[in-house]
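Job type: complex structure
Entries:
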Amino acid sequence: MAKRINLQGNQACALGAIAAGCTFYAGYPITPSSEVAEAMARELPKIGGTFIQMEDEIASMGAAIGASMGGLKVMTATSGPGFSLKQENLGYASGAEIPCVIINVMRGGPSTGMPTRPAQGDIMQARWGTHGDHAIIVLTPASVAECYSETVRAFELTERLRVPVVVLIDEVIGHLVETVDLDALKPSRLVTRKFADGPAEGFEPYAVTDDMVPPFPRPGDGYRSHTTGLTHLPSGFPTQNPSKAEAALVRTTDKLDLHADLIEAVEVAECDDADVVIASVGISARAGQAAVADLRSKGVKAGLFRPKTLWPFPEAALKAATKGAKAVVVPEMNQGQMVLEVERLLKNKSVHGLGKIDGEAITPAEIVTRVTEVLA
Amino acid sequence: MKDSVNEAEFQINDYIRLDQMPHFLCPGCGHGIALRALLWAVHELGIDKDKLAVVSGIGCSGRLSAYVDANSFHTTHGRPLAFATGLALARPDLHVIVITGDGDSLAIGGNHLIHACRRNLNMTCMMLNNEIYGMTGGQVSPTTTSNRYTTTTPAGNTEPVFDACALATAAGAGFVGREVTMQVTGLKNLLRDAIAHDGFSFVEVISDCTEIYGRKNDLGVSPEMMLSQKAGMRPEAYRNTVDVPFKPNALECGMLAKNDRPEYGATYRAMVDRIRGKGA
């Protein structure tokens, strides 16, 4: 019998994490993400896992990575100012290729901003928040069920590819309660990182493998390898040799290109004959979905393009979905972030932003109005 | 943790990565002596290198982890205790040793040190106090002696000094001690007791930065700096005696505090067992 329950987005992230095999969570209280920590504090001990509330956001990111270095599947969650603080150790996880999942429930910013109000202002920070060129994957659920399933997918990707994965949701999705069927959502398989199991002699923790994902040396298994945030050789030790440094850095970003098919995920609705495509994520995409229905009822051929993987941006899928469109409208709760990427990728298209930063979600009516303007 | 002492002779080459030599420490730096004492303690305790995790932060102290033939983690500035907290909770089978510095753990990482002491999770933190940011060229640190010159205190340091051991004791660390690098056997013994302690142990090592700090303050070369550091110490054995002249400004060395507060990992796991219906 289907197990249908009413569930909140933040709690769905926690249950998805547990279902994906997460056994360690380190966090710090912050609105509007605290329910993730509260759910993990309740659920993890039941499965023998570990929850810890650290002294700050930096430490919670550090502890999560530390536990992952110990071989566990780990997660942390935060919002706004906390996401800023996590960037330092998030960069370490990217550079040292340590699997971890970070839930970021976006609220109004900058600074303390509007803590209980929704925003989508971290779209660029999620991609570029930590310093330096780096690999990162960002997923954007748009429903409670997706909070669960995309958190599961976040674990699959971070464990498979050794790249930090950010699950980027907005306050509306985080606090939204919807009815979900947990049995239907339960993952059919568990993806766990490839642990090194060959001879310890001559083992290189960052060796260049065919899949560009080096096997993970678990402490205690005899490899005694070195992990550093310094740019490092396949041996794990630092280098400043220009060609070797560049090769090491490029591998971590090339890795994402190599596995693009695994990473990419989009929802494309009614784009085949669309004159206008609404490209959006999260709750704004839900409004976009309603706007498409409204526009279609008025005879406007509208479609929806919704990245579920926001970064790396699904370039080919966007180009395919907008092939016949005359215009693209990008509703987002910020002053125009995702629209920059859409403009960059669709240089010869008429691309229009619809930004909103007043702490309220974008309504379907606002999108319909903007589309009508654009098509006029 | 083994109670008996490993009787085999200590050979440092058994514990370091020779392929990472030469090391990058300056001539006269006390950090190498501290590392030797640490590895000697590890040897005496008979710790399996495969089960040894050395976690460091950033700075001169941070670079030491790369030289240890163990599971080594060179993490971010000030955060090694945060990383180590996750690692130690995830893997209670590992011996987790954090190597940090005065800037790393008292300035940028001060909050993590306080809470690591309070939490009392089983690990050892060796803080190398050389009173300076050496890696970045010699800026003032929270332990720079008053009036001394650094590149960011060109007219002398006007700030007061942190007493790291008093801080660790007040915050509840299970084991707190201090030693100078000149007393290498005493330092080894102190570190051995610290590692063997079931809880969070904190050892401050008074190290010397001859090249940058000593030179700028006319403190002499390394042996002179080490001798004066030793002279500035009030050894543990004399601390409570009345027939030794009391030096009011001297730092105390040896084991300074010890308590048997519950180790946090065990406390947490007991709670998990209770929730899962195992145990009492």
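Summary: Chain A has a mean pLDDT of 97. The interface with chain B takes residues 24, 26, 45-46, 48-50, 52, 54-56, 58-72, 74, 88-89, 92, 219-230, 237-238 of chain A (CB under 8 Å).
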